[in-house]
Amino acid sequence: MHRPPEARPPHRGLRWASAGLLVTFLLIIAVITLSPVRPDEGGQIALARFIILGHRRDGLPLWITFGRVEFAANVAMLLPIGFFGALTLTRARWLIVPAAIAGSAVVEVAQALALPARDGTPRDVISNGLGALLGYLIACAFLRSVGRREWLRTIPLARDAAPMRVIHRGIVS
Asked: Which long-range contacts does 141-149 make (Cβ < 8 Å, 24+ apart)?
């Protein structure tokens, strides 16, 4: 049976697209994090050299370190999980954050126990959890904005309302 548009759940298309993107990002992250070798080790070495040279020659602030860049990259890696997860879930959106933290902890334990070339660290769980939280908060702000726009569309426009009588200097027009 076909439901009328007003009976359809809101944002259904958005949820389906977000679910597809969530699965895509989860697969990409699984390949990156569960690979037996470090991803792009040559690139990591080049980045470390770039930061060191930047400190020595180009005035790169000393607070920018390889560890902080790596932390920020881990935050950025799970930000889409928090964002698309929150858009996909309908009732308990907040659950995406503890689910992402738990998933990150499982990956870090697997890296520490089963992947000798990888380092499983609590610091990565913290940065991944922070990324999921930021993604969740951005999704909440996005949904609030979309909901407000939909609510504003329900308010009758002034031109659609009955004409108002204007009283100017005692004269009714």
From this structure: 142/87, 143/11, 143/86, 143/87, 146/11, 146/14
Mean pLDDT of 52-68: 91
Q: Comparing C-alpha atoms, which of 64, 79, 62 is closest to residue 22?
A: 79
Question: Are 126 and 97 in contact, with CB atoms under 8 Å apart?
Answer: no
Question: Two tokens at 156?
Answer: 């009758």
Summarised one tens digit per residue, pLDDT across range 132-163 is: 999 999 999 998 888 777 766 666 665 555 55
Reported as a single tens digit per residue, the pLDDT across 62-80 is: 999 999 999 999 999 999 9
Rounded to two decimals, what is the model's pTM?
A: 0.78
Residue 24 identity: T
Return the closest-CA partner of residue 123 out of 112, 115, 134, 114: 112
Query: Could you tell me the CA-to-CA distances from 117 to 49, 76, 103 in Å, in that order?
Result: 21, 23, 20
- Written as one string, the DSSP assignment of 117-136 is TS---HHHHHHHHHHHHHHH
Distance of CA 156 to the CA centre of its chain: 35
Question: Which residues contact residue 28 at a Cβ distance below 8 angstroms, ignoring those fewer than 6 apart?
Answer: none
Residue ranges of domains in the chain: 11-152
